[in-house]
């Protein structure tokens, strides 16, 4: 029976705790390290050294408030089967409002993610697309893997990416803050931008360098992706600001933070008009099913050096054993009967709907 952090419990045949059962042939009590709140008591991989911290299979079992993680029917992330995608010609373009200024904020090592949170005084909003309301940017979160090509939470036709950048917004028209919004309908909107190291990007896209630009050669392994548009050899300039040596070494350990100034958020977005959207959940506890997901259909570049620097970040404090933050993704969840809508016609993937592109407002 699970009794929560800071209390003893009897473990008898519990999945994922085989090591403990081998060490102690009889039922035993394991003393957990006290946590400030249940919100602290989860991980992407079960932790067994000194204390047990539940991984994804246990999220919905250790806390009744997280029950949706186990029994929810609209959970995220998912594997997007593009053959099931519905073309919706009435989806308007996404509209990004950045106030015409560069943004500042703080980058954190949370122990689970690299997280950038803009200054509260700066309003960065998104609307349009599948969103009936304006949503305010709360956080930018990075998911990445220990190997190139494996690290994104979502997959496209079974294919993963080296990283996934998630821009987390809350509905500012209906709710006063993200805490309230996350628990209620139409509360959250998450824009996902996939990232791959350049060499892998070329392999997937079936493109070649010629005449000063990357040219589309043949249909790649992910046909809905917008590889035919301009793809240069340079890394994404926004990620370059976040992941350069001066910055990334300031957040090597859990709870480290570093202030950044004069970031151009529009530099993060690839030049494309296409996206796929579906209704899902938060991909971390408590897994509330209040998220409109928007998956941008063109990946951005990340260099081998940048992805390697992310893998050197520790999910622990300096006084604790090093554990890489990589592979910080929740396993795939079943799509069930949810619809996948896209604004790109698969029969004419290069044709744009009238006005279909990002709109930046000053």
UniProtKB/TrEMBL annotation:
<comment type="function">
    <text>Does not have a catalytic activity.</text>
</comment>
<dbReference type="GO" id="GO:0005576">
    <property type="term" value="C:extracellular region"/>
</dbReference>
<keyword id="KW-0964">Secreted</keyword>
<keyword id="KW-0732">Signal</keyword>
<comment type="similarity">
    <text>Belongs to the alpha-carbonic anhydrase family.</text>
</comment>
<dbReference type="InterPro" id="IPR001148">
    <property type="entry name" value="CA_dom"/>
</dbReference>
<dbReference type="InterPro" id="IPR023561">
    <property type="entry name" value="Carbonic_anhydrase_a-class"/>
</dbReference>
<dbReference type="InterPro" id="IPR041878">
    <property type="entry name" value="Alpha_CARP_X/XI"/>
</dbReference>
<keyword id="KW-0325">Glycoprotein</keyword>
<feature type="compositionally biased region" description="Basic residues">
    <location>
        <begin position="349"/>
        <end position="362"/>
    </location>
</feature>
<dbReference type="GO" id="GO:0006730">
    <property type="term" value="P:one-carbon metabolic process"/>
</dbReference>
<dbReference type="GO" id="GO:0016323">
    <property type="term" value="C:basolateral plasma membrane"/>
</dbReference>
<dbReference type="GO" id="GO:0008270">
    <property type="term" value="F:zinc ion binding"/>
</dbReference>
<dbReference type="Pfam" id="PF00194">
    <property type="entry name" value="Carb_anhydrase"/>
</dbReference>
<dbReference type="InterPro" id="IPR036398">
    <property type="entry name" value="CA_dom_sf"/>
</dbReference>
<feature type="signal peptide">
    <location>
        <begin position="1"/>
        <end position="29"/>
    </location>
</feature>
<feature type="domain" description="Alpha-carbonic anhydrase">
    <location>
        <begin position="40"/>
        <end position="344"/>
    </location>
</feature>
<protein>
    <recommendedName>
        <fullName>Carbonic anhydrase-related protein 11</fullName>
    </recommendedName>
</protein>
<feature type="region of interest" description="Disordered">
    <location>
        <begin position="325"/>
        <end position="362"/>
    </location>
</feature>
<dbReference type="GO" id="GO:0004089">
    <property type="term" value="F:carbonate dehydratase activity"/>
</dbReference>
